[in-house]
Fold each of these.
Amino acid sequence: MLKIQRSGHGKVVFTLSGRIEADDVAELQRLLDLEVADHLLALDLQDVTLLDRDAVKFLARREADGIQLENCPAYIREWIERETDHKSRRKRLNVAKRSAHRRTQ
């Protein structure tokens, strides 16, 4: 079960604790969407105990959008980096395949 606590002192921090699963991603996105665009946003992950791949992908996308991941445990950071590297590698492969296909036509 995921617990979400919001605090705001100069920036808005959502402190997450417990498990983050695919079902929680929509609620987290909804909460982030409710925030004013000019606020700095952060997700504090110190008390996250478990997460699934959908949650990792969500965190990677939010970080790419400029949301800070604070107190991110090493295993989560490594998983985010693997997901990001995997996505980049897949994108490069698709570009290469399209280029090769164009040359053969």
Amino acid sequence: MTPEALRHSARSAAAPPAGLAAPLEALWWEAHGDWDRAHGAAQAGEDAGSAWVHAYLHRVEGDLANADYWYRRAGRQRPAASLEAEWAAIAAALLPEDAAGGDPSRSDGTA
């Protein structure tokens, strides 16, 4: 699946595709327009990908102090890019592992 396909799914389907990892499900719900469900999915994970999505969601919300905390937990800095560009970057970074059957919750690249 590509980031574009994930976003299209979020805009046209009632539920996320089966088998998405928690951070990708969170991105799906955010693109679907349900910030609360997105936040819940991001909070469910304790990995770097979930922290990155969690940071992004607080950036969407406008809570930059909280976002910065989660960016630090993810080992990242708040980007200057648009929210749309960041969403696409997160999806692109997480989808290859997910599509290959790996576990994106593992930050060491192993399944």
